[in-house]
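Standup notes
- DV: blocked on the single-chain target, sequence here:
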Amino acid sequence: MRLSDYIEQSFCNLWKKKLRTFLTTCGVVIGIGALVCMFAFGKGMQKKLTETFNELGLFNYVAVSPSQTQQSPVLDDEFLRSLADVEGVEWALPEIRFPAMIRFRGEEEFSLVQVLPTDICQAGFIKLREGEFYRNDDENALVISDSLLRRANVKKPETVIGENIEVCTLVFDLSPASLPNLLSFIRGQGLPFTTRSYTFTICGVAERMGMSGPMPIRSDVFIPHGTAQRMKKIPLTSISDIFKSIRQSPGYSSVGIKLSSPKYVEPVKTRMEQMGFETFAMLDQLEEIKTGFLFVDMFLFAVGMIGITVAALGIINTMVMSILERYREIGIMKAIGASDKDVKKIFFFESGVIGFLGGIFGLTLGWLVSMLINLIVNSFAVRQGVPYMNYFSFPWWLCLGAIVFSISISLLAGIYPTLRAARVDPVVALRHD
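- DV (later): unblocked, structure below
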């Protein structure tokens, strides 16, 4: 028999028992659909994370901070100027952030205000939704993020351009007038802090940035460098900064270095470490991220295999029932010259056809379910100001692999029925009712 004859006969035999074939194929469809859907979700999140990191330039970023275990140089303006001679360095930004209460239109929101020089703003690392960046480092203006406006119940960002906004900072108050507060602090009943209020004009609204924006740009409010120097404030982002400031010399707590290419990450890290600094690069975490996703894929595969196992049992049951029903037919085929190999091929092809149909429709089911979930999740996320994104990814190898895997599982499930069919004694089979 030719290959086409085996395929044609398989479809004909399966079509004779349409309901049973349909139910068995549905088991394969559901198993493959669930497996494809979960794998597509894992690959989609991995793809989105990698694309976001590349888009934000996180793989081109090195963070430098003073060493906690040994004496290291100070991260000061002189250090920043020396980075201009380092190959691959595009720009360096000291991390200067301070806590503040933002008051706007009767609402109050706590935020970390970041000092961002004008040239960094103009470099395009922050995308504006409305307005423009401040023009110089001494301008009394700021850029606020769309996400902070949403938390302040502002639905139309374009309406805030040109409005005044109040930034309230904390300062240590050791003046005689604050003596009662100081005594309360000593007794553990208060804090020796007072607030300073500064009024700014909103000149721009930044788009909501995934992963908190390109490192080290990670705040919701940005102000010019010169204006920040005139403000009284506590430049602490967490309580750990207090302990760091006790051990370290004056200077910046950390400096973010943006490189032109990931190939410069290792040379720059090596040079900074030789100078006595501690370094951190997201590129070093890439392998750990891949390992994490590998474990996620293995878990999703294990869950999906539950459905595939149930489908395989259904195929075995269907094929065994088919053998019992066609017992006499098998005997006749053997009596007229069919070999055990021919009988095996017939039932193998029937198992393969079930797997092929299950793979095709399972892949379609997985894609449809994924698109539905993606649509529902994004419909809720967009209302919260989260940008639309695809949570699922269907690379070509996943689509092809789903079909091949479905056929392979079906063929494995058909091994026992085909061996059983090949062992049929034609004499006994011909006497079978």
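- Follow-up: The longest strand covers residues 193-206.
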